[in-house]
């Protein structure tokens, strides 16, 4: 009797060990990386330990989105959203958006800003939050040019040190304070930004080591524009990164100039869904809802 029980227990133990071994092997599936951007980031940085999934789809002509769920080298879950836009496409235009499409300072969510600028001749296909701002008044920390009107030329502090501008010939330009002072009359639209992360294809050293949700914008000499939002402040979903890592990832995508713009709860990555008449915020803002911000950038599709 005892011998039968012992055999039964040993059989059960063997079955349990075999099952655990099988389950542990099944937990490491092979993931085929589909996005060239994701492959570049894996190959060119020491940030991504494992890619769980990456999804690529066309938002509109010349505008592509890449979503990546990955494990960081530090062992944290991360979610990243990227826009790659070919701004050489004559149907595309970058436009500065302000709350209610007005010039007095205010605050409004990125999806709500769309309602005031979207029209039959200017279809908004994507939007992202832009400059840091006064959370009481909505006043941007950096410069502001909208519709050829120079509205603000002052900077709040040393951290407000860069800008992205749309020149009157349609070309995009990322620069610093000195370049803005010399060129401000050349721009149709311009919004401020934070630190320069990449310049002349070189990573710039940053002293800010904080880990937060981030938004970055990059350009290259071939006319490509990159937006990147990485979510944070959520342990099981996405933990956030440093601004140095943000620059490294955007450089790996192909950007030769990169600036950091407002992050934290302001980080908003919005698209016009290609299969429905809706503007969808693709990331998960860390406030739990879309934050009202001081301004934004919109990619416009013209007929």
Keywords:
eight-stranded antiparallel beta sheet; 5 helices; globular; disordered N terminus
The parts where pLDDT drops under 50 for at least 5 residues are 1-26
Largest sheet at a glance? Answer: 8 strands, antiparallel
Order of helices and strands: HHEEEEHEEEEEHEEEEEHEEEE
- Count the E strands: 18
Q: Walk across the major sheet and give the strand order.
A: 1-2-3-14-13-15-11-12
Quote the average pLDDT. Answer: 91
Distance between the termini: 85 Å
- Subunit organisation of the chains: single chain
Number of helices: 5
Per the principal axes of the C-alpha atoms, what is the gross shape? globular
Assign the structural class, choosing from mainly alpha, mainly beta, alpha/beta, alpha+beta, or little secondary structure: alpha+beta
Rounded to an integer in angstroms, the radius of gyration calculated over CA atoms is 23 Å
Helix content: 10-25%
**Strand content of the residues, in percent?**
35-45%
């Amino acid at each position: 009797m005892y011998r039968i029980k012992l055999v039964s227990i040993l059989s059960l133990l063997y079955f349990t060990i075999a099952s655990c071994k099988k389950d542990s092997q099944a937990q490491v599936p092979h993931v085929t990386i589909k996005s060239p951007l994701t492959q570049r980031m894996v190959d060119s940085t020491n940030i991504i330990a494992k890619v769980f999934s990456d999804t690529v789809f066309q938002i509109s002509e010349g505008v592509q989105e890449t979503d990546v769920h990955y494990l960081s080298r530090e062992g944290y879950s991360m979610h990243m959203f990227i826009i790659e836009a070919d701004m050489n496409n004559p149907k595309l235009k970058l436009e500065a958006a302000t709350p209610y499409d007005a010039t007095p300072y205010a605050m409004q969510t990125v999806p709500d800003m769309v309602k005031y600028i979207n029209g039959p001749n200017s279809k908004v296909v994507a939007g992202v939050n832009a400059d840091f701002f006064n959370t009481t008044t909505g006043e941007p920390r950096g410069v502001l040019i909208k519709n050829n009107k120079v509205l603000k030329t002052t900077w709040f502090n040393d951290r407000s040190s860069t800008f992205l501008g749309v020149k009157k010939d349609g070309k995009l330009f990322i620069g610093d304070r000195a370049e803005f002072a010399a060129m401000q009359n050349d721009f149709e639209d311009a919004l401020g930004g934070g630190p320069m992360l990449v310049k002349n294809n070189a990573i710039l050293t940053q002293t800010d080591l904080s880990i937060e949700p981030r938004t970055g914008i990059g350009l290259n000499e071939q006319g490509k524009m990159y937006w990147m939002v990485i979510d944070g402040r959520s342990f099981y979903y996405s933990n956030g990164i440093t601004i140095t890592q943000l620059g490294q990832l955007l450089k790996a995508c192909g950007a030769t100039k990169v600036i950091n713009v407002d992050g934290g709860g302001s980080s908003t990555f919005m698209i016009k869904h290609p299969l429905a008449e809706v503007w969808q915020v693709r990331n998960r803002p860390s406030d739990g809802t879309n934050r009202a911000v001081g301004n934004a950038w919109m990619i416009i599709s013209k007929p």
